[in-house]
Fold this protein.
Amino acid sequence: MRFTPRNTCLITFALLATGLTWAQATAPAATATVPGTPAAIEQRIERIHVEDKAIAIDEVRVGGETRTIDVKPNNGMPVYQVSPADGQRSWKVLGF
Protein backbone atom coordinates (compact mmCIF):
# COMPACT_ATOMS: atom_id res chain seq x y z
CA MET A 1 0.00 0.00 0.00
CA ARG A 2 1.31 3.42 -0.89
CA PHE A 3 1.13 6.35 1.48
CA THR A 4 -0.76 8.99 -0.44
CA PRO A 5 -2.06 12.25 1.00
CA ARG A 6 -5.57 10.78 0.87
CA ASN A 7 -4.58 7.66 2.86
CA THR A 8 -2.70 9.77 5.39
CA CYS A 9 -5.72 12.03 5.85
CA LEU A 10 -8.04 9.04 6.29
CA ILE A 11 -5.78 7.47 8.93
CA THR A 12 -5.45 10.79 10.75
CA PHE A 13 -9.22 11.31 10.67
CA ALA A 14 -9.81 7.79 11.99
CA LEU A 15 -7.41 8.40 14.88
CA LEU A 16 -9.06 11.68 15.78
CA ALA A 17 -12.58 10.24 15.51
CA THR A 18 -11.77 7.29 17.73
CA GLY A 19 -10.04 9.57 20.24
CA LEU A 20 -13.40 11.08 21.06
CA THR A 21 -14.64 7.74 22.38
CA TRP A 22 -11.58 6.80 24.45
CA ALA A 23 -13.06 8.09 27.70
CA GLN A 24 -16.20 6.03 27.17
CA ALA A 25 -14.44 2.80 26.26
CA THR A 26 -12.29 2.26 29.34
CA ALA A 27 -11.90 -1.30 30.56
CA PRO A 28 -12.10 -2.20 34.24
CA ALA A 29 -9.04 -0.80 35.95
CA ALA A 30 -6.47 -2.67 38.02
CA THR A 31 -3.90 -1.34 40.44
CA ALA A 32 -0.18 -1.97 40.65
CA THR A 33 2.81 -0.54 42.44
CA VAL A 34 5.14 1.51 40.29
CA PRO A 35 8.88 0.86 40.61
CA GLY A 36 10.69 3.69 42.35
CA THR A 37 7.71 4.64 44.52
CA PRO A 38 6.88 3.52 48.05
CA ALA A 39 5.06 0.19 48.14
CA ALA A 40 2.08 1.81 49.86
CA ILE A 41 1.33 3.97 46.80
CA GLU A 42 -0.55 2.04 44.13
CA GLN A 43 -1.22 3.35 40.64
CA ARG A 44 -4.38 2.61 38.71
CA ILE A 45 -3.85 0.73 35.42
CA GLU A 46 -6.33 1.37 32.61
CA ARG A 47 -6.44 -0.62 29.37
CA ILE A 48 -8.45 1.22 26.72
CA HIS A 49 -9.51 -0.45 23.47
CA VAL A 50 -11.18 1.52 20.68
CA GLU A 51 -12.12 -0.04 17.36
CA ASP A 52 -14.03 0.85 14.22
CA LYS A 53 -14.05 -0.41 10.62
CA ALA A 54 -10.68 1.11 9.74
CA ILE A 55 -8.51 0.86 12.85
CA ALA A 56 -8.11 -0.62 16.35
CA ILE A 57 -6.26 1.32 19.08
CA ASP A 58 -5.03 -0.13 22.40
CA GLU A 59 -3.81 2.29 25.07
CA VAL A 60 -2.34 1.55 28.51
CA ARG A 61 -2.42 4.23 31.20
CA VAL A 62 -0.77 3.97 34.61
CA GLY A 63 -1.86 6.53 37.17
CA GLY A 64 -3.64 8.52 34.45
CA GLU A 65 -0.45 8.82 32.36
CA THR A 66 -0.38 7.16 28.94
CA ARG A 67 2.42 4.61 28.73
CA THR A 68 1.80 2.77 25.43
CA ILE A 69 -0.37 3.25 22.35
CA ASP A 70 -0.64 0.40 19.82
CA VAL A 71 -2.42 1.02 16.51
CA LYS A 72 -3.65 -1.84 14.29
CA PRO A 73 -5.02 -0.73 10.90
CA ASN A 74 -7.62 -3.14 9.49
CA ASN A 75 -6.44 -2.60 5.90
CA GLY A 76 -3.49 -5.01 6.07
CA MET A 77 -0.86 -2.51 7.23
CA PRO A 78 1.38 -3.70 10.09
CA VAL A 79 0.73 -2.81 13.72
CA TYR A 80 2.68 0.19 14.96
CA GLN A 81 3.30 1.97 18.26
CA VAL A 82 2.87 5.70 18.88
CA SER A 83 5.14 7.34 21.44
CA PRO A 84 3.01 9.16 24.04
CA ALA A 85 5.79 11.71 24.61
CA ASP A 86 6.25 13.04 21.08
CA GLY A 87 3.78 11.24 18.79
CA GLN A 88 6.49 9.43 16.81
CA ARG A 89 5.40 6.19 15.14
CA SER A 90 7.54 3.05 15.18
CA TRP A 91 7.11 -0.38 13.62
CA LYS A 92 8.49 -3.68 14.86
CA VAL A 93 10.38 -5.11 11.90
CA LEU A 94 11.31 -8.52 13.28
CA GLY A 95 9.42 -10.02 16.20
CA PHE A 96 10.90 -12.88 18.21
